[in-house]
Amino acid sequence: MKKNRIVLLSTVAAGLILLGTATYVWAASPGVMGGNSPFGHMLGAKVRDLNVTDSPRAAAKATVKAHAPTMMPLVRKLVTERRALHDLIRADQPDEAAIRAQSARVATVQAELAVESSRLAVDLRKIATPDQLAKLREIETSVRERVDRGLDKASEWLAQP
C-alpha cells in the first residue's frame, strides 16, 4: 500500500512539473493562443475566449522566442534530471542518499526555471489586456481546482481499505 502511495504521489508531482513545462512548450508552439496546440485542447474553449488578435499573438510569440535561449536548456535539463530521479526511485535497490541528492538537483533546476518563467510571465502580461489577464486568472483557478479535485479523488481512493 505504501509503495502504491509513493508511486501515485510521484506521478502527481511529475504531472505538475510537466504541466509547467508543457505550458512553456505550448506557448512556444506555432499555434500559440489558439490553433491545434495540445494545451489549448486541454483547456478547451477557454483559451479561445481570450480573443487574442494577430498583433498581440505575434508579440507573444516573439516574446516566447526571446526567452527560449534561456528557458529551453532549463526545460531540457529538468527533463534529464527528472528522468535520472525516476530511474533512482525505480531501482531494484533504491539508494536514499542518491535519491535525495538527485531530488536536490531537480529542485535547483526547477528554481531556475521558475525564475525564468516569472520573467516570461511579466513580459507576456505587458502584451495582454486587463480583460485577458482576468480571464487567464480564471483559467488558472479552473486548472488548480481540477488538480485539487484529482488530488482529493486520489486521497479518497488511497483511504479505501
Low-confidence stretches: 23-41
Number of strands: 0
Give the overall form.
Answer: flat
Structural class: mainly alpha
What is the terminal-to-terminal distance?
A: 10 Å
Helical content (DSSP H or I, runs of 4+): over 70%
Contiguous helical run count: 6
Strand % is: under 5%
Overall mean pLDDT: 79
Number of domains: 1
Radius of gyration using CA atoms only: 18 Å
Report the sheet with the most strands, covering strand number, pairing sense and barrel closure: none
How are helices and strands ordered from N to C? Answer: HHHHHH
Describe the structure concisely for a colleague.
This protein is an all-alpha fold and 161 residues long. The chain has helices at residues 2-28, 38-43, 45-48, 54-89, 96-127, 130-159.
3D structure, described in words:
The chain has one domain (2-159). It contains six helices and no strands. The chain is flat and about 55 Å long. The protein has helices at 2-28, 38-43, 45-48, 54-89, 96-127, 130-159.
Tags for this entry?
single chain; 161 residues; mainly alpha
Indicate the topology.
Elements: H1 2-28, H2 38-43, H3 45-48, H4 54-89, H5 96-127, H6 130-159
Helix pairs in contact: 1-4, 4-5
